[in-house]
Amino acid sequence: MTMPLSLQHIRQYKIILVEDSDSERCLLLNLLDSMGFTAQGFSNAQGAIKHLQNEQVDMVITDWMMPQISGIELCKTIKSMPCSPYTILLTGNNQNAHMIEGIESGADDFIAKPFHSGVLKVRILAGLRIIEMQQKLASHNKTLNQMLVKEQDYLNCLRQDLSLAAQLQRALLPKNSDLTEGWRVTTEFKPAQDLAGDLFQCFNIDEQHIGFYLLDVSGHGTAASMLSFTLAHHLSSHQKVWQSLDLALITNKLNREFDDPEQCGRFATLLIGIANTKTGAVELINAGHPSPIIVSPQGAKFVDDSYAESQLPIGIDKQHHYQSQHFTMEKEEQLLLYSDGIYECRHSKFGSFGLTKLLKNVSDARALPAEQLLHYLSYSTELWQEKQAQDDISLMLISTTNTLSHCGSQM
């Protein structure tokens, strides 16, 4: 609802009157003053233009017929100014053609002479209401722009924080490097967003054992990544619990310490193991994770369920007691750990990628060097999901040495 303009509001607006006839200018100025308006008069357009170039004016009332610069030309000049005032054109001709010409020249309103004083007043009041709405709109736009600038600054800071967090997350991942007794770890990591819910690691525990894990926190983005950071801290190679070589102890402790502060049902799948690099004996706990794959010169196969039986994911039941299984890796074999993002991705036409296709791709590319094999698997998945990342993709390939000695296969 538009409120009527008060006398105080009317007085605050700056109005100029341009009329070459002294008598008519004086008459109009007195009329405007009697109506409560404050106006300044000019006898020609040149004086008005000079004034407009130096002063902010809200409204211009101008006659059409004037020497040198007409009212039409004045309107065109006014509308070319950065902050043009509201303009009312006065004319003794009320033909439609003149009205159209006046409005097209830049005039906001058109009043034909002779006119009733009340008509002039309401036209001015209507113009002032438009000016007031424009000012309010400009003020709102200014406030909105200030908010947008602040929002943009915040988003820029957030992007920088996410970038730093992503760098930190990548710093927690293992580098492609040699391990004890000639074993080697090779990795490939492609987060679906800046931050991922996946984290994995492989490291030397002592001169004869390596520890490794791959965890995948449910969900995506910042919340999932923060929880994965916390879990990775509990599984850090610096934690003394690894020295016990007790995999069940490590996993049960992690499960009890798992926290879901948002109470939104988060959990984490985990594949964790300890390998004896001299004998090839591997102890493994699978907490809701897909079975790892053994890659050998003869082909690729999933680790048998009896050696990698899936148990409850971490965070489902704090009282659950995890138990480990054992198997032995042979010479020249490799152990592939992966997140579900690589086989659960979907093609718009052909559906899910699937574990069967993943195993076939691994087998087909088994002769490739480790880095090329992981890149091939990652790229195949990228093509399948039509280069639209759907989930985090984590791959870790642990390679044995050629000189394993299976003396009792002791851990």
TrEMBL record:
Residues 14-128 form the Response regulatory domain. The modification 4-aspartylphosphate is found at residue 63. One of its GO terms (molecular function) is phosphatase activity. Pfam families: Response_reg, SpoIIE. SMART domains: PP2C_SIG, REC. Keywords: Hydrolase, Phosphoprotein. InterPro entries: Bact_Sigma-Reg, CheY-like_superfamily, PPM-type-like_dom_sf, PPM-type_phosphatase-like_dom, Sig_transdc_resp-reg_receiver. Gene3D superfamilies: 3.40.50.2300, PPM-type phosphatase domain. The keyword Phosphoprotein applies. The keyword Cytoplasm does not apply. GO terms for biological process: phosphorelay signal transduction system. This is Response regulator receiver modulated serine phosphatase.
